[in-house]
Amino acid sequence: MSHLPRIGISVGDLAGIGPEIIYKTFLDARLLKYCTPVVYGMATSLFDDFPVDEQVGPLTFRQVRSAADIDPGKLNAVTCWEEDFVLTPGQPTQASGAAARESLLAACRDLKDGLLDGIVTAPISKENTQSDEFRYPGHTEFLTSFFGASESLMLLASDDLRVATLTGHIPLKDVATRVTPELLRTKLQILLNSLRQDFGIEKPRVAVLGLNPHAGENGLLGTEEGKIVTPVIQQFLQEGHLVYGPYPADGYFGTGQYHQFDATLALYHDQGLIPFKTLAFERGVNYTAGLPIVRTSPDHGTAYGLAGQFRADPTSFREALYMACDLVRQRAGQVVVW
């Protein structure tokens, strides 16, 4: 690349910890050696109420109307609304939900127009962000639609631990009907492609978890493994891919078997995210694989209960920013050591 990665940052729900973790992340000026950050959504400043670091001083952003006018290697902010509004930390409102939408949409439009190289999204409230124009259960579904992908993949990553999910933000009662050979093949292919393209793993090893307790116990506790999961795995093996399973989820994570693989495909949201967040909550990153763009986020939510106390840990957001930079460089053909 001929320039530092230009990373757009959506502020998330302003009543949550999004502004705080953004602020704490950019107190470290060394990050400006890795990217040109562009925060979306400052009428004046989102950070006026935060304590000023005596060694760093107040953060100063260059306020612009368009990402076309950003200053490389500096802190930039694109105005998304004209007037500030009163917010109470920890109490989401229609205004905070609307601001989250406007920030996200503006960043995505600039990314689509080539003014950014990637985005990092701060946490939103899935309920509070809904509107007549925004009917998505989460960032992943919105981004998949906005960037014209037929499918995408939620991939949680931290160092060499990577956990993807076959199904996403759907009720648990609907999971079994969504586990089909077609979807499993599609998601496995996205995962394999991403491990090669985005993480530089030439011959990735992937484990697939079972749907039922004990991976069905040979049909005693469920038949989805024998009828759906195993045949798809065998097909990938015959095609030369290193895909194995299905593994019982409890024993797989409990015994550390995941260390033997480059990634794990869980079949539903909590099956993958509970062990991932238990093992890597502070450093975990959520990456949306399968899209033509790079998007990462911290692996936690709005944390309304922490908002306003200045106790939020910015580590996951910082790791998301680092990963976005690395993924942009990896896709540009630069050597990245994971």
What would you note in describing this structure?
This protein is of the alpha/beta class. 31% of the residues lie in helices and 16% in strands. The chain contains nine helices and twelve strands. The chain has helices at 18-25, 94-112, 139-146, 175-178, 181-197, 224-238, 249-254, 269-280, 315-331, and strands at 6-10, 36-40, 62-64, 76-78, 118-121, 153-158, 161-165, 205-209, 242-247, 263-266, 285-289, 295-298. The protein has a twelve-stranded mixed beta sheet, sandwiched between helices. The model has no long low-confidence stretch (mean pLDDT 93).
SSE layout and pairing:
Layout: E1 6-10, H1 18-25, E2 36-40, E3 62-64, E4 76-78, H2 94-112, E5 118-121, H3 139-146, E6 153-158, E7 161-165, H4 175-178, H5 181-197, E8 205-209, H6 224-238, E9 242-247, H7 249-254, E10 263-266, H8 269-280, E11 285-289, E12 295-298, H9 315-331
Parallel strand pairs: 1-2, 1-5, 2-4, 3-4, 5-12, 7-10, 8-9, 8-10
Antiparallel strand pairs: 6-7, 6-11, 11-12
Give Rg in angstroms. Answer: 20 Å
Major sheet description: 12 strands, mixed
Structural class: alpha/beta
Count of DSSP E strands?
12
Briefly, what is this?
The chain is an alpha/beta fold and 338 residues long. 31% of the residues lie in helices and 16% in strands. α6 links the parallel β8 and β9.
Keywords, separated by commas or semicolons:
31% helix, 9 helices, 338 residues, twelve-stranded mixed sheet, alpha/beta
